[in-house]
Amino acid sequence: MLLAAVAAALALMLFLVRGGLHPAAPLEQLARQSLDLPVALADGRPTLVEFYADWCEACRAMAPAMASLEQQHHGALDVVLLNVDNPRWQPEIDRYDVNGIPQLELFNAAGDAVGRSLGARSRPELEALTTALLAETPLPDLAGVGNVSSLAGGAAGGSGPPAALAGPRSHG
Q1: Where are the domains of the chain?
Q2: Which distant-in-sequence residues (6+ apart) come within 8 Å of 65 by Cβ?
Q3: Which residues are known to be catalytic?
Q4: Is the separation of the CB atoms in 101 and 168 below 8 Å?
Q5: Is 20 exposed, middle or buried (0-12, 13-18, 19+ CB in 10 A)?
Q6: DSSP reduced 3-state for 51
Q7: For 19-147, CATH number?
Q8: pTM recorded for the entire structure
């Protein structure tokens, strides 16, 4: 009898620790609580936008660090997640030339694009990017991170349309 009671108590604790009836992974929690992009870009705080997908293992791996940064800098930094599988975000996917995930778009407090990060990022790398955004200093020198160019008219600066790129959901 005592063994059954202990087993039931342990099962209940495990159930509650895992989120009860509605467990939510950090990626889903962040996506649900993130601001709309126009609101974030206009509120006077630096903004970190992540283009992600639910099925993306790299996005899922980054989610705990992203959630931690959002909590640590809540009120000073906006973290916005845009799912590439949601047709609602197609204009943003096109505007920011998303052709792979995870892709981070980095904006200063004035809402101006200051950089882009392609590929998965570790917690220290995300912290370095966040620190630079908050301090309004140059972005750290990391592989896959670059400043946004002010060139217009396609990748080569010409007047023709930009070359077609594979979409973020394609794999070759």
Answers
A1: 19-147
A2: 121, 122, 123, 126, 127
A3: 56, 59
A4: yes
A5: exposed
A6: strand
A7: 3.40.30.10
A8: 0.72
